[in-house]
Specification:
This protein is α/β, with parallel strands linked by helices. Helices cover about 30% and strands about 25% of the residues. The chain has helices at about 15-25, 40-45, 60-85, 105-115, 125-130, 155-165, 275-290, 335-350, 365-370; strands spanning about 1-10, 30, 50, 95-100, 120-125, 140-145, 150, 170-175, 180-185, 185-195, 195-205, 225-235, 245, 250-255, 260, 295-310, 315-320, 325-330. The chain is globular.
């Protein structure tokens, strides 16, 4: 039986980053993935690093996202130094374009929301926005500049974090599907694989949308897949420095000259097919935002499965089973929240306390929300 201080189910960027943190803390770490690590949501992402909430439900995640964005430069520097690989980190900001007929009201609302959450946001006239990003449509009526936001090449980042974890002493096991968690009384003693068991003091589930399929985990991590289709474009004549955002689309420039466009949100189970309708929706919105992309070459299309939760918030921290921790359910913010997730898990496993608030994301919240059994009324 393999024995580790920490056994991690899931070899995406979050599992790999946790492995890196724990290995650097002196722990013996094993990472177990159902296939080649880093090939699911980590590979399919766009790599936008924005703590701005996409919906009212996600406002609770803003402080966590802000903290993660703050530590990102340090995290990237460490990963690149240990791995010897570039991550494509770009600290160039985001520009959100507004097409609304009532742009003035919409602009003031967005600015007030961001400032109220402690996020930097600057209103721009349409002509000033196009001066910054000439690719923007003439139909854009105003814009919001979010100067502190960044982006990263998620595939390069995932490969670099995996390599950094290996070089720091973590053992990575591909094609090692996790069937369940090992229980000994009220304690989690490791993982159950297809053909063997793994013993560990700490067991960490970071298997994204596949977490709930691990026997014994669904009660703590009721995640489901949220499919997102993406397109990679190349247009030499379209120059873009920042992430461009609108109500219907985001465009993410890469260091290699590609522009990523995405993404749909579809609840269709574990179906990762790209569809004509999904790609058409993305391309139409991309051309509306940056008309020069009408002549772009389509270099790649793909779909990934984000791990969504009932409240769209991540699932982080210890369970009522001693030794079992969750680090999953990051939905559309997995790349953003990677550094802070890894740091919090390391702090808990080494110190049994954390430097930030994470109770809101506890895996125990789903049990707390269960309604009480209906009481029998007297006759």
């Amino acid at each position: 039986m393999k024995k580790f201080d920490a056994a991690i189910a899931g070899g995406g960027v979050i599992g790999a980053a946790i492995a890196l943190e724990l290995a650097r803390a002196g722990m013996r770490v094993g990472v177990f993935d159902r296939q080649q690590p880093g090939q699911e949501a980590s590979w399919a992402s766009a790599g936008i690093l924005s703590p701005a909430p996409e919906s009212p439900a996600m406002i609770a995640m803003v402080p966590l996202g802000k903290k993660s964005l703050t530590v990102y430069p340090e995290f990237v520097a460490q990963v690149e130094e240990i791995s010897g690989q570039s991550t494509g980190f770009r600290a160039t900001g985001t520009l959100e374009a507004l097409f609304s007929g009532d742009t003035k009201a919409e602009l003031s609302t967005i600015i007030a929301l961001h400032h109220g959450l402690g996020l930097k946001a600057e209103p721009l006239r349409a002509e000033d926005a196009r001066e910054l990003e000439p690719a923007l449509s003439e139909d854009v009526e105003a814009a919001v500049l979010r100067p502190e936001e960044c982006s990263i090449d998620n595939r390069a980042l995932t490969n670099a974090v995996l390599e950094a974890a290996r070089r720091s002493g973590a053992e990575i096991f591909p094609d090692a599907s996790v069937r369940g968690i090992r229980r000994e009384g009220n304690r989690c003693a490791g993982l159950i694989l297809q053909n063997e068991n793994v013993e560990a003091k700490w067991t960490i589930v970071a298997a994204g949308c596949f977490s709930a399929a691990i026997e014994g985990v669904a009660v703590y991590a009721p995640v489901r897949p949220a499919k997102g289709q993406m397109v990679a474009l190349r247009a030499e004549e379209v120059k873009m420095q920042r992430v461009l955002w609108s109500e219907h689309i985001y465009l993410v420039p890469r260091n290699d000259g590609r522009i990523l466009a995405g993404a749909t949100v579809e609840y269709v189970g574990f179906d990762k097919r790209t569809t004509a309708g999904g790609i058409e929706k993305i391309l139409s919105a991309a051309i509306e935002l940056a008309p020069g992309l009408a002549n772009a070459r389509i270099e790649e299309t793909w779909a990934g499965l984000r791990p969504d939760t009932p409240d769209h918030l991540p699932i982080l921290g210890p369970t009522d089973l001693d030794g079992l921790l969750m680090a999953t359910g990051h939905f559309r913010s997995g790349i953003l929240l990677t550094p802070i997730t890894a740091r919090l898990i390391r702090e808990w496993t080494t110190e049994q306390q954390v430097s930030g608030e994470w109770e809101r994301f506890s895996p125990m919240r789903f049990q707390a929300e269960k309604p009480e059994a209906t009481k029998t009324m007297p006759a």
